[in-house]
């Protein structure tokens, strides 16, 4: 079928409200419209091909484009049974739940929904309902970390450590309190790793004590901060956070919406340590965006907080996600996990991630505007500065120009964008887990060219 590109673009400009962008420039410039993809390659409506180093633009197409095993699984399931509400079960939902928890020590229950924001909302509701059932509503506060992102609803924005994403949407949901981030490169305590006492983790306990331990019911963090600048905490950090939460009977929620499903070289980011969270949320890579799918995953201990005799009508978790009952989406999740396992993509993420960091550092570390290169698995960031000594961040307009230069040369990269006041200065990368050395070489070379062209 011949595509009339001009007609499609005019319809887009007339009717589509795009995400996260100002539409006024569309009066002079056309929006990008993608029409086809295979592996890491995608093609726009004008026939231009790109290497996608951002897994669909939002860290989510983990197994790459055109994966027939997932498409066929969705099709076959929808022909048999497309949907049944989450009050009951479908075979793929049951199989998906079993498959997920088989990869997670001591996690046993899976609540399916449709987005990372929704998955985190479920976790917040669990904390709040536990507070009502067990603590007379007093243990309701949820602490979150500066620079982390947990979603786009009002309550998840209330738990968001990216101030520019929150602007103009207040007043926020009460009961959410921020504590310091854990980026060594910009340590909020002026310390250096090796001689510090991991003050970034101790800041959590200080926050709990300031708020009152009897008022705090949950802590939510990303195991590795994604959109806030690709921040990998030191090895002591998560175990210390877990210990602090245990000390004060606080549920630890680990947001694996980005980091989960192989992105960091493990099934889940928190598994780089030996901690066990109380609740894990995940989305994006769960079905690699072949269908909207997310999950809130808990230990049996969390699940049992909501068990009671039938006459106690207020005790069960009174929540529903309409499209969490889509059997085709669950089938996509089952097939996606199978692809990751069958094709050994966790190991590929680890190996190619090591290669990606090695290449970025060898080609860019000496550049006058490169402050730090950090990452884990196929998940990496390049923080750009005006001066290595002062660490003054480059303006985000320069990052936009670098990303534009890369795109002009056929590579799509990411960047921190209108999120962190005066700190939107990190190039972000998360190519699909199928990436090869050739793919990475092309991505790195595009960044080298872009940085050299824009920054000199």
What radius of gyration results from the CA coordinates?
22 Å
The CATH superfamily of the largest domain turns out to be Type I PLP-dependent aspartate aminotransferase-like (Major domain)
Level-1 CATH class name of the largest domain: Alpha Beta
Say how many strands there are: 15
- Helix amount: 25-40%
Any idea what the shape is?
globular
Order of helices and strands: HEEEHHHEHEHHEHEHEEEHHHEEHEEEH
In terms of structural class, how would the helical and strand content be classed?
Answer: alpha/beta
**Major sheet strand order:** 4-10-9-8-7-5-6
Q: What's the number of domains?
A: 2
Strand percent estimate: 15-25%
Name the average pLDDT. 96
Sketch the major β-sheet: 7 strands, mixed
Low-confidence runs? none
Report the CATH topology name of the largest domain.
Answer: Aspartate Aminotransferase, domain 2
Q: How far apart are the termini? A: 45 Å
CATH architecture descriptor of the largest domain: 3-Layer(aba) Sandwich
Count every helix, treating DSSP H or I runs of 4 or more residues as helices: 14
Family: Belongs to the class-III pyridoxal-phosphate-dependent aminotransferase family.
GO molecular function: pyridoxal phosphate binding; taurine-pyruvate aminotransferase activity
Enzyme class: transferase
Cofactor: pyridoxal 5'-phosphate
């Amino acid at each position: 079928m011949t595509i009339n590109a001009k007609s499609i673009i005019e319809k887009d400009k007339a009717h589509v409200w795009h995400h996260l962008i100002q539409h006024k420039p569309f009066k002079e410039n056309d929006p990008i419209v993608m029409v086809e993809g295979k592996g890491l390659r995608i093609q726009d409506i004008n026939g231009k091909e790109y290497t996608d180093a951002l897994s669909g633009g939002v860290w989510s197409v983990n197994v790459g484009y055109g994966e027939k095993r997932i498409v066929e699984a969705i099709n076959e399931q929808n022909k048999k049974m497309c949907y049944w509400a989450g009050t009951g079960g479908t075979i793929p939902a049951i199989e998906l739940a079993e498959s997920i928890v088989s990869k997670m020590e001591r996690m046993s229950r899976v609540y399916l929904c449709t987005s990372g924001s929704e998955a985190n909302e479920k976790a917040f509701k669990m904390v709040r309902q536990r507070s009502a059932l067990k603590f007379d509503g007093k243990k309701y506060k949820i602490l979150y970390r500066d620079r982390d992102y947990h979603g786009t609803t009002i309550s998840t924005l209330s738990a968001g450590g990216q101030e520019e994403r929150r602007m103009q949407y207040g007043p926020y949901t009460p009961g959410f309190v921020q504590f310091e981030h854990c980026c060594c490169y910009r340590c909020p305590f002026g310390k250096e790793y090796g001689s510090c006492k991991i003050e970034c983790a101790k800041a959590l306990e200080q926050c709990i004590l300031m708020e009152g331990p009897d008022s705090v019911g949950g802590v939510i963090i990303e195991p590795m901060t994604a959109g806030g600048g690709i921040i990998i905490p030191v090895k002591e950090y998560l175990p210390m956070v877990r210990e602090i939460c245990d000390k004060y009977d606080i549920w630890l929620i680990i947001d694996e919406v980005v980091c989960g499903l192989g992105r960091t070289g493990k099934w889940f980011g928190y598994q780089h340590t030996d901690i066990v969270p109380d609740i894990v949320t995940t989305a994006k890579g769960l079905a690699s965006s072949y269908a909207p799918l997310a999950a809130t995953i808990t230990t049996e201990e969390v699940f049992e907080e909501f068990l009671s005799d039938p006459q106690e009508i207020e005790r069960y978790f009174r929540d529903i996600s309409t499209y969490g009952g889509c059997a085709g989406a669950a089938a996509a999740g089952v097939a996606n996990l199978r692809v990751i396992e069958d094709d050994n993509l966790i190991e590929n993420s680890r190996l190619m991630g090591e290669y990606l960091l090695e290449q970025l550092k060898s080609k860019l570390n000496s550049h006058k505007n490169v402050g730090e290169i950090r990452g884990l698995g196929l998940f990496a960031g390049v923080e750009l500065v005006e001066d290595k000594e002062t660490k003054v961040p480059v303006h985000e307009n320069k990052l936009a120009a670098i990303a534009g230069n890369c795109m002009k040369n056929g590579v799509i990269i990411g960047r921190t964008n209108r999120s962190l006041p005066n700190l939107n200065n990190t190039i972000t990368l998360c190519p699909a887990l199928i990436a090869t050395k050739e793919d990475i070489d092309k991505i790195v070379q595009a960044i080298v060219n872009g940085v050299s062209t824009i920054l000199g």
